[in-house]
Structures are given as structure tokens and as C-alpha cells.
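Sequence in, structure out. Go.
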Amino acid sequence: MTVTVKNIIPRKQAENSQTTQYTALNVKTVIDKFTVTNTSAVTVSFSCNLVAMADTPGNQNLVTKTRGIAAGEAYTCPELVGQVLDSGGYISTLASAAASLTISASGREIT
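Output:
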């Protein structure tokens, strides 16, 4: 077994449409840290789905639902830390406003 520590979502602005941010390709991935920082002047909501291979984002895999991130707040998403994605699973996010939330995540890929 090989474990690789990785920046699975390099810092980027979250889109205001449901967007795949990371896919576990031929690995199992454990999320160690997930941060959402609001760089705007207003509260923006954030949602995150952990989706199994061949599934689509929906209520059945929603982990963070429309969590309000206050202006200037950095939220560390404790509900995502320790979650596991099997091979083919992916992280999908949705922000209520584009170019307002900076997201980043790190984790371990296990082969």
C-alpha cells in the first residue's frame, strides 16, 4: 500500500454552478483538510457533495448544504474532514456567487 499526501484541490475560486473539483482516479482518498474562505463583502452560501462513481450530485450525497460563509470568514468544513472517496468518487461544490469563495483541500491518496 502506498500513501501519497496531496493538495487535492489547489486554491481556486468556487463556481456558482455545480462543479467537479477532484476525482479519485484509481485511488482511495481521505480528506484531511477542506477550507472555504469568503473574499467578498457579503455572506455567500457553499454546498459540497461527495459523489460515488456513476452517481450524480444530489441530496443523497450532500455533505454541506448551503452553509453561509460570512464576509471574510474562513470555514474549515469539519463535516468533510475524515471522509473517504473510493476510486471514481468525486468532490463537487456549488457557491451561491461566483468569484467569492476560495476553496482548497488536502488529503491522502491510497493505492
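Check: Residues 31 and 107 are 4 Å apart (CA to CA). The longest strand covers residues 3-13.
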